[in-house]
Amino acid sequence: MNKRIIIYIVIGVILLITVNSSIFIQDETKQSIVTQFGKPIGEPRTTPGINFKVPFLQKVQFFDKRYLEWDGDRNQVPTKDKKFIFVDTYARWEITDPLQFFIRLRDERSAQSRLDDILDGETRNAIASHNLLDVVRSSNRDPEVTEDFMEELEILEEISFGREKIEEIVLTKANERTTDLGVRILDFKFKRMNYVNEVRDRVYDRMISERNRIADQFRSEGQGQARKIQGDKERDLAKIQSEAFREAEEIKGLADAEATAIYANAYNQNRQTVELYKFLRTMESYEKSFDENTSIILSTDSEFFKFLNKLN
User: Fold this and answer.
1) Residues in CB range of 29: below 8 A, 6 or more apart
2) Which pLDDT score is estimated for 266?
3) pTM of the model
4) Gyration radius of the chain's alpha carbons
5) Terminal-to-terminal C-alpha distance of the chain
């Protein structure tokens, strides 16, 4: 009785192991093929759910059904116009034929390595066939000018191709080379580009030179404007001073004329006032003309000598 129970248990375990080995569950993110002694058997399994295989003799190879990521290495690439740049790329791909994929590549690691060769090679070919401007720009857009001086500075050269078209070329050429691999590249983009150090230094020097030229132009225009303002100021100042001097002289002339008229009216009242006026004016002239070191020679009939002679 005990031996029979043990036999039943052993048979049950064997059946359980056999059933478990013959059934596999495939979820919606996977696709698979069944292999026997390393060779694929039957059609790929792409439908999620329960699937069957020959126990112990057959194995299941699972492959991802989702979009997969490819991230390229940062490579130094020359452009058609002999400019060396660092290019960093990325792509998205999927396994479209699991059977062909298994025959040609076996697994995703091998696929990534093969895509490295294909995409890096096509990237080099595409960039080497176009000028730098076509690689870094996508369209002949008009630059946004925020300052007047930028109208001259921000003049963009025309491009004949453009970055997006180059990406499309790489994508098309790469897919032509992956048709027999059971994969399809969905998208390819340039993630980052940069000049090599030598080229970047030359670009910076050119940018600095251009900005210095604009600055020199501003300084020259500013100096010219400053000289014009200074000249206008001096001209206006001279004009104001001249007009002020003229007005002052006119006022002094009018004042002297009025004073003379007042003096004339005052001293022309009679003969005594006239004589007093002449005496006072002569005394004022004596005061201004003579000092202790002054010597003069006058004739005896000189009007200027008249009052001196009377003093004697």
Assistant:
1) 64, 65, 66
2) 67
3) 0.59
4) 54
5) 186
